[in-house]
Amino acid sequence: MSTDYQPWVKDDQREVTRLCAQTGLMLLQHSAESALAESVARRLGLALRMDSVEIALMANGITVTTIRDGRCHTTVRRNIDRGINMHVVTEVQRTMLLTEEKKLGLAEVARRLDEIKPFRYPRWLVSVMVGLSCAAFARLGLLARGADADLGTFVLTFVASGVAMQVRQWLAHLHFNPLLNFATAAFVATSIAAQGVIHGWVDSPKVAMSACVLLFVPGFPLINAVSDMVKGYINTGISRGVMAVLLLLACCGGIVFAMTVWNAWTWL
């Protein structure tokens, strides 16, 4: 092997290792399952002409080792949760597929990954849609019980869940701890719904108080936790499952505190 070729291989392999770690990290940070993160990062490295790519996922980090012509290069990156965002997950996967099709080179992959930014809907739109979904659940709950779907329950649930979602997004923007975020927002939602009990605004306050907090169910983390453990990623699965349980406990704490403050024990 010529001396001119060796430095190029070393620099190239270092960059590929960095890109593989960045790819896996972006997927994990935006709530992709562990199997997908490992698969996409490995396939990207192989598409960029590595002989082998070995990846170890941890609860709060990722380790990537690339092997080419007998040379190994390893890097470790810390994983920080950045919230659920399927736009990022989709764009990262698309980048890997284009690389496999030989449509992107090393520089193009690096530039494309750096250009991927989380797409977020306006806060007011998210709050409105979450409010409508929770209100729809309230209506379904009334119909399932054979009761009339009164407008008051629908409106109260919509307002309570919509305002709670606004509070949740505001606290997340200020980088508050997710547990405190969930507890505070659940307190707000339950407090608003409790006014229907206190003032007799609605015919079915129990349905309104239960439906307005459905937005706090951590369905995505729970699904990912089960998926990770079933596919052999025990550490990350347990980590995600424990976090989901803690979020549920924080939500329950906010609900109980609100019912205590307003003395509205409608659920019991």
Record field, number of beta strands: 3
Termini separation comes to: 77 Å
What is the C-alpha radius of gyration, as a whole number of Å? 24 Å
Which percent band covers the strand fraction? 5-15%
Largest beta sheet, briefly? 3 strands, antiparallel
Structural class category: mainly alpha
| Discrete helix count | 10
Can you characterise this structure?
- The chain has 268 residues and is mostly helical.
- It has two domains: 5-115, no CATH class; 123-262, no CATH class.
- It has helices at residues 5-29, 34-47, 86-100, 106-115, 123-144, 151-173, 178-199, 205-211, 219-230, 234-262, and strands at 52-58, 61-68, 71-78.
- A three-stranded antiparallel sheet has the order 1-2-3, with helices on one face.
- The longest helix has 29 residues, at 234-262.
- It is elongated, with a radius of gyration of 24 Å.
- The termini are far apart.
